[in-house]
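dumping this here so i dont lose it
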C-alpha cells in the first residue's frame, strides 16, 4: 500500500481527538497501519526567532546589512 494523506476529520471521533494536526499520513508497516501527523507550515514556524510573523525577505536583508555595518 502506498502512503496516503487523509484529513483527520474523516477518522472516527476517538482517533480524531488524538491528533492536533489537520491531516495524517497513513502507511502500512509490515501489516500494521501507522498514522503519523502531517506537520503543516504553521506548526513548523520558528517561534521567537523572528521579530514578527511579517518578517519579509527585504526586512531580513536590511537587518543583515545593519548587522554587518555594526561589525565594521
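and the seq i came up w/
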Amino acid at each position: 500500500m502506498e502512503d496516503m494523506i487523509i484529513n483527520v476529520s474523516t477518522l472516527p471521533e476517538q482517533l480524531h481527538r488524538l491528533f492536533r494536526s489537520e491531516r495524517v499520513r497513513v502507511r502500512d508497516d509490515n501489516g500494521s497501519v501507522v498514522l503519523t501527523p502531517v506537520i503543516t507550515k504553521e506548526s513548523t514556524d520558528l517561534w521567537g526567532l523572528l521579530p514578527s510573523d511579517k518578517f519579509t525577505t527585504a526586512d531580513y536583508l536590511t537587518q543583515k546589512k545593519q548587522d554587518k555595518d555594526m561589525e565594521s
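Residues 22 and 60 are 31 Å apart (CA to CA).
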